[in-house]
Design a protein that fits this description.
The chain is of the alpha+beta class. The chain is 29% helix and 24% strand. Among the domains are: 141 residues, Zinc/RING finger domain, C3HC4 (zinc finger) (Herpes Virus-1), CATH 3.30.40.10; 142 residues, Apoptosis, Tumor Necrosis Factor Receptor Associated Protein 2, Chain A (Sandwich). The strands form 9 sheets. Strands 19, 20, 21, 22 and 25 form a 5-stranded antiparallel beta sheet that branches. Strands 18-26-23-24 form a 4-stranded antiparallel beta sheet, with no helix packed on it. The chain has a 3-stranded mixed beta sheet with strand order 1-10-11, with no helix packed on it. The structure holds zinc ion (7 copies).
Length: 468
Amino acid sequence: MPSQSRNSSTSSVRTARSSRSSKLASVEEKYGFEANFEPSLDKKYTCPVCLAGLREPVQTKCGHRFCRACIKKACGSQAVTKCPIDKIIFDLKTELFEDLAVKREVLSQKVLCVNKERGCSWTAELRYLEEHGDQCEFALVACQNGCGEEFIQQHAELHGKECPLRIISCSYCKENIVHRDLTPHFQVCPRHPVSCSLCGKTDLLREQLKGHLDCDEGDCPDVVVPCSFEEMGCNEQVKRDLLSAHVQDATQHHFQLMVSYTRGLKSQVQSHMDTMRETHEICNQLICEQADLARQITEQNKQIGHQAALLREVQQIGHSGVLYWKVELPSQNYTNPLLSPPFYTSQPGYKFRLCLELRGHVARSETHASLFVMMCRGEYDDQLFFPFGGVCHVTVFNQSHSRAVSSDQHLTTTIECQNLTRAETDNCQTQKRGRLRFMKTDTLIRAPYCLNRELFIRADMATFCASA
Ligand SMILES: [Zn+2]
Ligand SMILES: [Zn+2]
Ligand SMILES: [Zn+2]
Ligand SMILES: [Zn+2]
Ligand SMILES: [Zn+2]
Ligand SMILES: [Zn+2]
Ligand SMILES: [Zn+2]
């Protein structure tokens, strides 16, 4: 039979325990059954297109049977088509019928397992073939570890114990290792037993070997260690076993080494102390220098402050012999003297201030205000002649805005300033001239001279020829 010969030439290899995937594949539309029918399949159950057993058989109106998939493939997508056997035209939708009777008969045919040649003796109706195929112990499977080996399902367990790529646990360190890599692993496994190459001790694990051979902490009697007096200069190296014998034998030598070592230490300590003393002295010197510098900086800051004040004064002070003074009355106490900003008679010139005492000079008069012109210590005094002689015209402005104020409505007075000598301070009480009873306080602190608690006073200083 053609169907049988074809089948025996194809061998299906699946991965062990992969029956689920083959079941999914059977959902796709398939052509005829290719199976080992026993006895051979009657020709009436054979599809004339695929020459295999009819699968999902359908019948045309001309009475020919095909697998459903085969006739669909032969007719393509056309709705009206021809029978492949006798070319009779039929409608694919309305003139093609499912043949349930033949379907049942085909599925009832006896078949043998496809793995018969590998020893499977299974035989049953065709309808059970796919189900058996998934479970057949003689189906060919590939090793799931990927070693490339193929074997029948029955031998899968056996191969699992022999596969070179199987995973096993190292019996020493319990790590999971591919069996093929086990021998190389033993060369590095930390828990693998080793023996000491020096003393021959055998019950050691690889991870303990380093500790066993350690010069300080180890216990290998044959490891070579330096003498305990190495730091003091003994260069002897002996097996650990012989160390105590060496220490005993070389007592004299070790003692001499210790003496010179101690001497060396003593001189080192001395030299360190010398260095520390020097450092200490340098530190003290630096501290002194720093204090000096700080003093200098403070002094310079003071000078800078003084210069800045002078500069401000020079920028603000008038140098024309004229002063305009806005006097703000204090809120309560009228006994303190009020000092005007300074002004110069010229540049270079003499420096003056006005001084207004609302309750009289040192409160001598409670009713009248005193007014003075006061010589101050000036920047140009070195270039000037003293004593000074001049006259100062003082004006207290009438601030009435009701009508134009003519000059005779302001309050004026002239103060003789004769024989004023050089002032030693900026607020010199001795070098001043003025009026003890300048005017009545009550008049001065009210309108029209005082508005919004403010007075406006002008001073014009005329200098006589100073005596040479
Ligand atoms: Zn077919
Ligand atoms: Zn036909
Ligand atoms: Zn089988
Ligand atoms: Zn394998
Ligand atoms: Zn291991
Ligand atoms: Zn050892
Ligand atoms: Zn020694």
